[in-house]
């Protein structure tokens, strides 16, 4: 063993994507190198290296000559038991000067943003550093900065080229419970013969993302090569963007944004468009739900976002159509991965109980995408999309894609549930989307796939006393209790007049 090495011991600690290294405070390296808690250090295993945050142990959990790593760090370095790891200081991260500059209100150039993205992807930023960058950009970002950030995020990852002139894609900016139109749109568009390699994020601040929902039905952690094979065979896919690493910086930013509960406009635009460019898309439809308690709260804000999306898209070579939709209430009944998946399947199977609002919105967006891509004449998109859905062609394509990705399973309900009932008779007049989504998150969504809310009180519905407004599902009694404690103090989630 060399003086800068320690023997690896597995402790089995999971810190998600944050790389953490564990050492004794009295080990010879901590003493000689002056390492202290939270120091960022370089850890190497032969030719593989990562940057990790140090956690200091003052117990017999490790011996002075041993070191341990968090699960993610161990997997990144591919460390076997009792391997010897090499430790060293890392030089100051130069791009942090640009982060500090942004915090103080200065504009960042493309080169500065590129340096930041490179350091983030290489693991040189801790979660605290990434949070500082996100917070610094949470205010106003210029159009040039957003374009620069988009380009920088594309350049630090893979970029696909499908070798064809039209590659379709669809995205929703989120902020509206349910609204799981993407799997339906992909199925319709792929059934029409277009190529639509859909990569989706997991939830940032919502109870479910498309990747979370689809994971209750099929495998979404596809490698880049697996994704290409599925698309080649079926024309479309439902892949988690983090597994194919098309815009790896975005996935790292999203993880911290979720913890901060921040999803700023500039980063939203860069996140969406970088994923589309990286996936090789040429024609994209974007859904922006607008409502008082949606992510985008006013028509004016939506129009501004629409304009900025279109301008940045043009600079990075995308043909884009932005659709402003109703964001005053949830779409469909399910809020949470498995419950939303049930809605998707009901629509695709043309079940009589399927939520019609989800069906109609999916048909609208699929029709717009078919027209944008030149597959059908303008004005005929909705007609064609509806026919493909109602004849069962979309469901057949959906199943084929799922099977090509590794399987097709049916989502299930969580073990524990509670019905929230109307305390008075009247008409549903208003729904607080944000607080309803929070109920689903407190119940465990999206980390517990079957957790969430089954909603049954759309605007305009007449209800009687004790009629069920929504049902909370949780995978443990404790999480169900969290949600119930919250709603006990929140009387106006659903307003009845």
TrEMBL record:
What's a BP term from Gene Ontology annotated to this protein? pyrimidine nucleobase metabolic process
What EC number(s) does its UniProt record assign? 2.4.2.4
> Taxonomically, which superkingdom?
Bacteria
Q: Where is the Pyrimidine nucleoside phosphorylase C-terminal domain?
A: 427-494
Under SMART domains, the record lists: PYNP_C
What UniProt keywords are attached to this protein's entry? Glycosyltransferase, Plasmid, Transferase
Which GO molecular function annotations are given, in alphabetical order? 1,4-alpha-oligoglucan phosphorylase activity; thymidine phosphorylase activity
Q: Name one GO cellular component term.
A: cytosol
Gene3D superfamilies the record matches = 1.20.970.50, 2.40.40.20, Nucleoside phosphorylase/phosphoribosyltransferase catalytic domain, Pyrimidine nucleoside phosphorylase-like, C-terminal domain
**Which SUPFAM superfamilies does the record match to this protein?**
Nucleoside phosphorylase/phosphoribosyltransferase catalytic domain (SSF52418), Nucleoside phosphorylase/phosphoribosyltransferase N-terminal domain (SSF47648), Pyrimidine nucleoside phosphorylase C-terminal domain (SSF54680)
Which Pfam families does the UniProt entry name for this protein?
Glycos_trans_3N, Glycos_transf_3, PYNP_C
Q: Show the coiled coil region(s).
A: none
Question: Which reaction equations make up its catalytic activity?
Answer: thymidine + phosphate = 2-deoxy-alpha-D-ribose 1-phosphate + thymine
Q: Which NCBIfam families match?
A: ARCH_P_rylase (TIGR02645), PRK04350.1 (NF003338)
Q: What protein does this entry describe?
A: thymidine phosphorylase
Q: Which organism is it from?
A: Pontibacter actiniarum
């Amino acid at each position: 063993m060399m003086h800068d090495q320690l023997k690896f011991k597995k402790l089995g600690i999971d810190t998600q994507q944050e790389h953490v290294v564990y050492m004794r405070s009295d080990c010879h390296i901590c003493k000689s190198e002056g390492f202290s808690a939270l120091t960022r250090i370089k850890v190497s295993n032969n030719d593989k290296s990562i940057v990790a945050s140090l956690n200091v142990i003052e117990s017999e959990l490790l011996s002075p000559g041993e070191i341990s790593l968090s699960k993610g760090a161990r997997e990144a370095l591919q460390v076997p038991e009792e391997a010897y790891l090499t430790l060293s200081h890392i030089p100051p991260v130069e791009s942090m000067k640009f982060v500090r500059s942004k915090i103080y209100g200065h504009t960042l150039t493309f080169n500065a943003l590129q340096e930041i993205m490179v350091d983030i992807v290489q693991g040189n930023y801790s979660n605290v550093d990434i949070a500082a960058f996100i917070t610094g950009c949470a205010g106003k970002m210029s159009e040039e900065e957003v374009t620069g950030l988009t380009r920088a995020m594309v350049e630090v990852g893979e970029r696909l080229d499908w070798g064809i002139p039209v590659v379709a894609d669809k995205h929703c900016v989120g902020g509206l419970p349910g609204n799981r139109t993407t799997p339906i749109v992909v199925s319709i568009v792929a059934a029409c013969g277009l190529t639509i390699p859909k990569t989706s994020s997991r939830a940032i601040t919502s109870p479910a993302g498309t990747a979370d929902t689809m994971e209750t039905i099929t495998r979404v952690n596809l490698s880049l090569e697996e994704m290409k094979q599925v698309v080649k065979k079926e024309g479309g896919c439902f892949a988690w963007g983090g597994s194919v690493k098309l815009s790896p910086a975005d996935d790292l930013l999203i993880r911290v944004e979720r913890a901060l509960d921040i999803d700023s406009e500039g980063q939203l635009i860069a996140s969406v468009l970088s994923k589309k460019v990286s996936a090789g898309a040429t024609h994209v439809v974007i859904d922006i739900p607008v409502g008082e308690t949606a992510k985008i709260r006013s028509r004016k804000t939506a129009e501004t976002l629409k304009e900025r999306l279109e301008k940045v898209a043009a600079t990075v070579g995308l043909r884009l159509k932005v659709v402003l939709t109703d964001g005053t209430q949830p779409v469909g009944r399910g809020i949470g991965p498995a419950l939303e998946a049930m809605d998707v399947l009901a629509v695709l199977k043309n079940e009589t109980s399927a939520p019609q609002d989800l069906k109609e919105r999916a048909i609208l967006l699929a029709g717009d995408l078919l027209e944008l891509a030149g597959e059908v004449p303008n004005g005929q998109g909705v007609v064609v999309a509806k026919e493909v859905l109602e004849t069962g062609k979309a469901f057949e394509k959906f199943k084929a894609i799922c099977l090509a990705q590794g399987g097709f399973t049916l989502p299930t309900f969580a073990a524990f549930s509670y019905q929230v009932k109307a305390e008075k008779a009247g008409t549903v007049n208003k729904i607080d989307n944000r607080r309803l989504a929070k109920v689903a998150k407190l119940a465990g969504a999206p980390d517990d796939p079957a957790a969430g809310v089954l909603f049954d009180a759309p605007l305009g519905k007449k209800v009687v006393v004790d009629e069920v407004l929504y049902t909370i599902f949780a995978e443990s009694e404790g999480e169900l209790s969290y949600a119930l404690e919250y709603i006990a103090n929140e009387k106006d989630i659903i307003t009845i007049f």
